[in-house]
Design goal:
Distance between the termini: 81 Å
Helix content: 25-40%
Number of helices: 1
Structural class: alpha+beta
Strand order of the largest sheet: 1-2-3-4-5
Order of helices and strands: HEEEEE
Shape: rod-shaped
Strand content: 35-45%
Number of domains: 1
Largest sheet: 5 strands, antiparallel
Length: 169
C-alpha cells in the first residue's frame, strides 16, 4: 500500500479564518449586549430624573398654593411651569420641563368664627393637582390630592395636608 502525504499547507489558513470568524461573532455579540445595557440604563436614568422632576414641580405647586391669599374653585385653570431658577435641578444640557396643573377644587367645609355664621374663620378645600415632567423625551406624571385650610384672617398662613400622592402610569 502506498501512503501519500497529504498537503497540510492550507490547514493553518483555514484554522486562522475560523478562529477570526468566531472572534468577530463574539466581539459583535458583546458589543450588542453592551449597547443594549447602556440604552436600558439611560432610559432608567431619564425615567428616574423625570419622576424626581415631576415631584419637584408638585412640591413647588403645593408651596405656591399654600402662599395664595385665597383659594377658590376658579383656580382650576391655574398652572405652574418650570422656570429658569428651576434649571439648577438638572445637569446643564439636559432637555427637561415640567407643568403642574390644578385639576379639581372642591369646597369641603366652612368654619365660622361666630355662632351667627356671619364671619368666616376658614374654608377647607380639596384640591387635585397633576404634575407632568419630561426629561429627554421620557415622560412621568404624578397626581396628588391635598386639603387646603384657607384662613380668612390676615397674616394667617394656609395649611396644606397631602391626602395622597401617586405616580400615574
Amino acid at each position: 500500500m502506498l501512503l501519500t502525504k497529504l498537503n497540510d499547507s492550507g490547514f493553518v489558513l483555514v484554522t486562522v479564518i475560523v478562529y477570526t470568524i468566531v472572534l468577530i461573532i463574539l466581539g459583535t455579540s458583546l458589543m450588542t449586549v453592551t449597547l443594549n445595557e447602556y440604552r436600558i440604563e439611560k432610559a432608567y436614568r431619564e425615567s428616574l430624573m423625570a419622576n424626581y422632576l415631576a415631584e419637584a414641580g408638585m412640591e413647588k405647586a403645593i408651596y405656591k398654593l399654600a402662599e395664595l391669599e385665597n383659594i377658590y374653585p376658579g383656580i382650576v385653570s391655574k398652572t405652574w411651569k418650570m422656570e429658569d431658577d428651576d434649571r439648577d435641578l438638572l445637569k446643564s444640557g439636559i432637555r427637561a420641563d415640567y407643568t403642574v396643573s390644578v385639576e379639581n377644587v372642591q369646597l369641603e367645609d366652612t368654619i365660622y368664627a361666630d355662632e351667627e355664621r356671619t364671619m368666616v374663620y376658614k374654608r377647607i378645600y380639596s384640591v387635585i393637582l397633576k404634575s407632568n415632567a419630561s426629561v429627554e423625551g421620557m415622560n412621568r406624571e404624578i397626581e396628588a390630592q391635598i386639603k387646603v385650610e384657607d384662613y380668612e384672617a390676615q397674616g394667617k398662613e394656609n395649611k396644606v395636608q397631602i391626602m395622597y400622592w401617586r405616580q400615574k402610569k
